[in-house]
């Protein structure tokens, strides 16, 4: 059974940093395009970042480029999101999502974690 | 403001058929990129409902169907049941933003 378990969320001050983790089980995350999707309070879903199957390519939504970094550790079967220079508007529940699709432009998410809450506030 | 536009809410009585629209533009749905749909039950993570415009993953009831035309897509739910009450989101790819985009979500209420 595919399982994704996020951790690392919490309260952080504006300008601070956090690293989110997503431990995968039931599959090898290096065989799939893995992603982070977030949902701010009262808002809809927003794709944040993704990493290709090969791991050679990483993608980001414009608002986090230069601040967030996605990575994975195949030996630990874990996905990460390093978040720096955090802003109040980054406050959200962050979900790890397993990607499918024949190409990056056809990407969809067939398994999701339960999410971890990130609150950016002073 | 979401790139893909969905109605904030729809409703229907048990047994009825409802549709949820997802309107995009020439840089996403209109460019031919696939549309996918997710169901979000209260307190749970999103669940894939439809992928590649009209394909159902195994385990998803055939009461759920998807379609696409021009710059819009639709999710239809027939034989509405109480357990269908949830938030529904569409998703596609946007070439101008170079990434996945979601609709703002539609809350389905079963009367």
Which tags fit this structure?
heterodimer; A: 122 residues; mainly beta; 7-stranded mixed beta sheet; 4-stranded antiparallel beta sheet; globular; B: 111 residues; 6-stranded mixed beta sheet; 0% helix
Described by the principal axes of the CA atoms, the overall outline of chain B is: globular
Kindly report how far apart the N and C termini of chain A lie: 40 Å
Assign the structural class of chain B, choosing from mainly alpha, mainly beta, alpha/beta, alpha+beta, or little secondary structure.
mainly beta
DSSP summary: helix tally of chain B: 0
Fraction of residues in H or I helices of chain A: under 10%
- The count of β-strands of chain A is 11
What is the SS-derived class of chain A?
mainly beta
Give the chain pair forming the largest contact, with residue counts.
A-B, 27 and 26 residues
Distance linking N and C termini of chain B = 28 Å
Low-confidence stretches of chain B: none
Radius of gyration of chain B: 13 Å
Main sheet specs of chain A: 7 strands, mixed
How confident overall, as mean pLDDT of chain A? 96
On the 0 to 100 scale, the average pLDDT of chain B is 96
The percent of residues in helical segments of chain B reads under 10%
Précis, in short:
Chain A is mainly beta and 122 residues long. Chain A has strands at 3-7, 10-12, 18-25, 33-39, 45-51, 58-60, 68-73, 78-83, 92-100, 108-112, 116-120.
Q: Would you kindly provide a written description of the structure presented here, covering whatever features stand out?
A:
The complex is a heterodimer of chains A (122) and B (111). Chain A has 122 residues and is mainly β. Chain A has strands spanning 3-7, 10-12, 18-25, 33-39, 45-51, 58-60, 68-73, 78-83, 92-100, 108-112, 116-120. In chain A, the strands form 2 sheets. In chain A, strands 2, 4, 5, 6, 9, 10 and 11 form a 7-stranded mixed β-sheet that branches. A 4-stranded antiparallel β-sheet of chain A has the order 1-3-8-7, with no helix packed on it. Chain A is globular. The model of chain A has no long low-confidence stretch (mean pLDDT 96). Chain B has 111 residues and is mainly β. In chain B, 0% of the residues lie in helices and 44% in strands. Chain B has strands at 9-12, 18-23, 36-40, 47-50, 64-69, 72-77, 86-94, 99-102, 106-110. Chain B starts with 8 loop residues before the first strand and ends with a strand. The chains are: A mainly beta (122), B mainly beta (111). The A-B interface holds A 35, 37, 43-47, 50, 59-62, 95, 100-101, 104-115 and B 2, 33-34, 36, 38, 44-48, 51-52, 57, 89, 91, 93, 95, 97-105.
């Amino acid at each position: 059974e595919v399982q994704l378990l996020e951790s690392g969320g919490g309260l952080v001050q504006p300008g601070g940093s956090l690293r989110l983790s997503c431990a995968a089980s039931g599959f090898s995350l290096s065989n799939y395009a893995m992603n982070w999707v977030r949902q701010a309070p009262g808002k809809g879903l927003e794709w944040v970042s993704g990493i290709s199957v090969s791991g050679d390519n990483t993608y980001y939504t414009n608002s986090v480029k230069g601040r967030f970094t996605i990575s994975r550790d195949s030996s630990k079967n874990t996905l990460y999101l390093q978040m720096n220079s955090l802003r109040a508007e980054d406050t959200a529940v962050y979900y790890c999502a397993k990607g499918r699709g024949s190409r990056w432009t056809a990407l969809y998410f067939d398994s999701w974690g339960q999410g971890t809450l990130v609150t950016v506030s002073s | 403001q979401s790139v893909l536009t969905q109605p904030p809410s729809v409703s229907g009585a048990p047994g009825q058929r409802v549709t949820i629209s997802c309107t995009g533009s020439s840089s996403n749905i209109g460019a031919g990129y696939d549309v996918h749909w997710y169901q979000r039950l209260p307190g749970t993570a999103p669940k894939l409902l439809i992928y590649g415009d009209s394909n159902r993953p195994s385990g998803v009831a055939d009461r759920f169907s998807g379609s696409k035309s021009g710059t819009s897509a639709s999710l239809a739910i027939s034989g509405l049941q109480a357990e269908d009450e949830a938030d529904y989101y569409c998703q596609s790819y946007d070439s101008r933003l170079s990434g996945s985009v979601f609709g703002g979500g539609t809350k389905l209420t079963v009367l």
